[in-house]
Amino acid sequence: MSVARLLMGVAGLALMGVGVFRLLDVSDLTGVLIWLGAAVALHDALIAPLVLLIGLLLVRGRVRGPVRGALLVTGALTAVALPVLLRPGRPANSSVLPLDYPRNWLLALVAVAAVTALLQAARGIRRSRRRPPSQARQPSGR
């Protein structure tokens, strides 16, 4: 076992201990357990099958590299932003969400799309430079 692997395992166990310790301070443990159960059910019944289906369609459609990466990043950004996106409007406490999260989420998605488009364009240019000249341009041996 490598040292890095051992350190990552120790760090993971320490963080799990912090989570359990913080969970002991929760007054409504039933609500937390219901929320966790609903999150697992939502993941297993909707999110995971949807991601697998999209992945299958992308592979069959020959979509590779940057587009698949962009979809993964978009999914992760959306998962992080989902609680804020599902509760629109101004919160009662202005320090809770002082930023415009829906706008910033959309800007992040636009940035991901722009970087993906640039990467795809660069790949296309690189491929076109590597291709041999077409046979129509070569003189025939007649």
Automatic annotation (TrEMBL):
KW Membrane (keyword) present: yes
Taxonomic source organism: Streptomyces chiangmaiensis
Domain of life: Bacteria
Transmembrane annotation, as ranges: 32-59, 66-85, 105-122
Descriptive protein name: Integral membrane protein
Keywords: Membrane, Transmembrane, Transmembrane helix
